[in-house]
Amino acid sequence: MTQKYTKLKYFLYIRRSQDAEDRQMASLDDQAAEMRLVAERLGIEIVDVIKESMSAKKPGRPQFDSMIQRIHAGEANGILCWKLNRLARNPVDGGQISWLLQTGVIQSIQSYDRQYLPTDNVIIMAVELGMANQFVNDLSSDVKRGMRNKAKRGWMPQQSLPPGYVHNTGYKEGDVEIVSTSDLLIMKHLLGEFLEGNCSVTDIDRKAEALGLRNPKTGKPYCNNTFVKILSNPMYMGKFSWRNEDGDLVVHDGNHEAIITAQQYQRIQLLMGKRGRPTRVNTYDFAFRGPFTCGECGYDITAEHKLQCICTGCKHKFSCKTATACTKCELEMEDMQKPTIVDKTYYRCTKKSKTQKCTQGAIEEADLAKAIDDMLIDIQIDQDFYKWAKEAFAEVHQEEVGNQKELHTHVSKRKAELIEQADNLTRMRARNEINAERFMKTQTEIDTELAAIDKEGLLLSDRVLHWVEIADGYLTFAENASKVFNETTDLQLKREMVQTLGSNLTIKDKKACISLLKPLQEVKKVHSATHAKLGRFEPKKTPVKQGLSGEKALAFSRLCAGEDSNLCRNTPLDLQSNAFDRSATDAFFMQ
Questions:
Q1: HSE (CB half, 13 Å, CA atoms) of 403?
Q2: Are 589 and 471 in contact (CB under 8 A)?
Q3: How far apart are alpha carbons 433 and 127 in whole angstroms?
Q4: How far is CA 225 from CA 16, 200, 221, 313, 483, in A?
């Protein structure tokens, strides 16, 4: 055992930083194992092992500060460490260590390969600590320069990216440095919903959670306030901001995938608040805030929830959201005998117009809901009509599918002929039987006709497959919309039902104004016309079994087959040629 170590007590201090500067430094366990061998070889007494996983580039390491305090208290008078830069990489901690060594509070610092004593030349230690500090400064400059260069290349350098984007950690030169994830599809859907102007930030938060959008770090849904920042992030329109060499923010065009345009981004900011300022997150959710606008000035309709108490002493009405006693006579609510509680929600214009003064008052939610329900009742159809209409649609659809099969056979035959012509044309050109000009002209004509056949086939297939589903959706809505509207407690569902019901949704003079959608108008007309002409009927029975007269039976038969143009004029049931008018169907049921 060496004599100079026998009377000293050492703290073994081992540190590993989480920053890039120390990625190649030995781990904590490796440092501890190596330094214990050094202590055993030199006969050093270790009184405690102090571990820390924190960068030393700035002061404020809890374990290091605790060790210095314990050295002042006399628990130890030496430090054992891997290298001097494990103790300090900043001038504050470095100066403190150097001063304690010079004054003898610390009598020895032993690293892996050398010992520092109070009697040593201070320049040597100062140089080593200065080199450790300079390493951090150089590293910081290099990192910042690298991030600026990455921004100039069109890639956001920020470590944490908004949902839908992640850094390509294994990229090579020329590869994309930011890749899209499946969350970007969810964000595209959410931004599209918000752009319609019918959703609040709270609605987007709720939809995101339902769609499975989660914070990758925590695995939990994003909080409401986070969506204010997400909706304000310009990365989704392909841009981002980063500071240049002078510290000024510069807007860069990103090379990552953009999902909205600059105009859409600006509209999102306007929808969130004036000049893009985030709106206050609302505690309450309201069924009809979003779809409606003011019928006088055109601005948005907002909602207010009022919870008020009528004092039993002075009859004064006050808000019991914020007060527990009457604001006039100061009578406590708990001392009132059965006070009247008024719980109402009002919808009113936001009155943001600077050019005109809006005079509209507020409408109670109950009155607004009744007006909507009245419209739903007005378009309501009975179950008999619903079943009959579905069978009528199915009958026409079956006929249409049959026609499509015949057309498909004809088109396939023609397509095969064109392909054969193209092959023959190529062989003729190879044998030099036709010149290049004629070959190109004929080939272009064949390609044009083939492209037209493919396009028309896709359009026809899509129309045949989907128009019945869309029409059935409107029939289902008309049959039970009023019942669902009154029974459901899902505010989002109510909001969507209002949007399905009509367009140009406004509130004026405390009344709801809704332009009924064209498909629902036609369903209403057909329903009224059939009842006026035929009365009630059962679709599963033949016209004779229903007890209809010969004239009614003939009208009913023609209506089912789609022939009575006078009965349902100007509706999707345009009864010519024993089939639906295809253009009318598309116009009414596919808008």
A1: 12
A2: yes
A3: 89
A4: 35, 12, 12, 42, 36
Same domain, residue pair 435 and 491: yes
Residue 124: CA atoms inside 13 Å, Cβ hemisphere, count?
Answer: 10
- From 74, 106, 140, give the residue that closes a domain: 140
261 and 312 housed in the same domain? no
Q: Which domain holds residue 371?
A: 293-378
Q: Where are the alpha helices (DSSP H) in 103-174?
A: 122-152
Are 478 and 520 spatial neighbours (Cβ–Cβ below 8 Å)? yes
- Sign of the Cα torsion 566, 567, 568, 574 reads negative
Q: Measure the CA–CA gap between 139 and 136, rounded to whole angstroms.
A: 5
Query: Using CA atoms, how far apart are residues 472 and 138, in angstroms rounded to an integer?
Result: 69
Burial class for 508, CB neighbours closer than 10 Å (0-12, 13-18, 19+): middle
**Residue predicted with more confidence, 43 or 397:** 43
pTM for this prediction:
0.41
Which tokens go with 523?
């369903």
**What are residue 80's phi and psi, to 5 degrees?**
-110, 125
Rounded Cα gap, residues 238 and 180, in angstroms: 12
Which residues touch 7 (CB under 8 Å, ≥6 apart)? none
At 114-145, the pLDDT tens digits run: 888 888 877 778 788 778 777 766 666 666 77
